[in-house]
Amino acid sequence: MKDEERMKWLNESRRRGEMWEEKVEGLGTRTVWKEGCKPEWAWKNDVLVDDDWAEKSHEEQGKVAKVGKGGPERSQEAGRATEKAKGRARVGDTVPNGLEAKETTRADFRTPVEKRQDEATSRRKGGRATWKRVEMSERDWDLVRWSWEQKFLTFEQCKRWFPELEPTSRYLHQRLQKLVAFQFLARITVPGESRWAYITGELGHDRLVSRGTVPEAGRLTAIDWKTYDHDQVVAEMRWALERDWNLAKSWKSERALRRELSRQDIPDAVFTRASGKEVALEVELTRKNLRRAAVHVGRYLTGEVEWPRVLYVLPTITEAAHFMSTAVPAAVHALRKDKPGEGPRIYRILVTALDELRKRGLDARVWQWFKTSELVEAAWQTSPLRQLQ
């Protein structure tokens, strides 16, 4: 009889009340069978009792459990063998000291069923001892490259590379575990959330350097949790503009821009539209004070930057309206005061909201300044996002 069938038999017998385990002082836990219910393959030293077992005194039950109904063949040596079969080390057993003692004891006392379960668990965990090699696909390299450019990727974002998988499929878990096992990715637990984020692993970074994709000194070993939500939204915007809506022909992340530009003020990203014009992306999830926001917007009004347009993404429509009615006018007034002869290039500013993008997609409203001489609210006009093409 196979071990799986034995376990099924034992569970059914335990459910019907034909067998149970009892603790006996000095001998540990023993299996007790009702008379006529014990199978031939059961342990020969298991206790066999009759229907009067429950009516016997505690002392009489102890004697039967210690000696067994068939006589004194149930010895302490047999009890020790049972304890080892159940994975318990007893006093007097010689085991190595330190961390190795735990592994050695478990390896010595495992049953065949436990061995197969441990092997299956090892395969699920993706240990190096199970996987001898990994063959990288273009999709895998895309994941590793994005994890470097966007600083990290959440597990939910990694799902987007595998649209063909069923919701219950574990292939993605296994694939990511394999990339982590071979150090193409590194897994980090997100504090306060029951999920993981993935950054570029040591081997993955070295291979990207050899391909000329990333600089040699630039691998992140941790996530900046102060900008975690911001960086996550930037990665979400990239996937939407580049993959879902096909509005971005190319994309330069903040990390890539810092390799090319020497100044401090770098946008969150720069993408190229279908027309060939570049648009800077600024994700503003928190409200800045008016002076700081005006200085930030003023860089795009004066032509200090080389990008002809900038798309500001605010969290809600309310925040977008507040930004258009405070930060932009303040930047225009400051520019007219400091440089009276230079007209502000307000048409460069595009404003939208994150909840609008998530809800309406390409039909999301984008606010743009209409060329008028007066700074009034009516100067803002909307157009769908799809017109960015």
Major pleated sheet: 7 strands, mixed
Continuous helix count: 14
Run of helices and strands:
HEEEHHHHHEHHEEHHEHEEHEHEHEE
CATH topology of the largest domain: Trna Endonuclease, Chain: A, domain 1
CATH class assignment of the largest domain: Alpha Beta
Distance between the termini: 69 Å
What overall geometry do the principal axes of the alpha carbons give? Answer: elongated
The largest sheet has its strands arranged as 7-8-9-10-11-12-13
Number of strands: 13
Question: Low-confidence stretches at least 5 residues in length (pLDDT < 50)?
Answer: 64-78, 88-92, 94-106
The appropriate CATH architecture of the largest domain is 3-Layer(aba) Sandwich
Radius of gyration: 34 Å
Describe the structure in your own words.
The protein is of the alpha+beta class and 389 residues long. The protein has 3 domains: 3-121, no CATH class; 130-223, Orthogonal Bundle (Arc Repressor Mutant, subunit A); 226-389, Trna Endonuclease, Chain: A, domain 1 (3-Layer(aba) Sandwich). Helices cover 41% and strands 16% of the residues. It contains 14 helices and 13 strands. The strands form 3 sheets. Strands 7-8-9-10-11-12-13 form a 7-stranded mixed beta sheet. Strands 1-2-3 form a 3-stranded mixed beta sheet, with helices on both faces. The termini are far apart. 23% of the residues are buried.
